[in-house]
Write a structure and sequence with these properties.
single chain; 100 residues; alpha+beta; 3 helices; 4 strands; YCII; YCII-related domain-containing protein; Dimeric_a/b-barrel
């Protein structure tokens, strides 16, 4: 069965747009978020993850999974989402072209 692809968009909650308001707690959550994404990559469920580098950053995570329910679960269990420092929105997605 062919895997389905989903993209979830991440946005920082407005109170964290100013880096001066970050504490060790937020830094720890983001580190855990990155580790979870690395584990998904090792499991073959993460196609791509990254972020914009502007003052109102947006992250994207592209998943390859069996079901939409699995994608929703992975998104909702992302530490940044679960801990409330980022808001996420899920979209059905299909990568059409990519650099090899």
């Amino acid at each position: 069965m062919e895997k389905l692809q989903f993209l979830y968009q991440l946005k920082l909650v407005p109170s964290l747009l100013d880096e001066a308001s970050w504490t060790n707690k937020e830094n720890s959550i983001v580190q855990h978020h990155f580790e979870v994404l690395q584990n998904l990559q090792q499991e073959g469920k993460l196609f791509l993850a990254g972020r914009t580098l502007n003052s109102d950053p947006m992250g994207i995570v592209i998943l390859e999974v069996d079901t939409e329910e699995e994608a929703i679960e992975l998104m909702n269990n992302d530490p940044a989402v679960k801990e409330g420092i980022m808001e996420a929105q899920l979209f059905p997605y299909r990568v059409a072209l990519y650099k090899k």
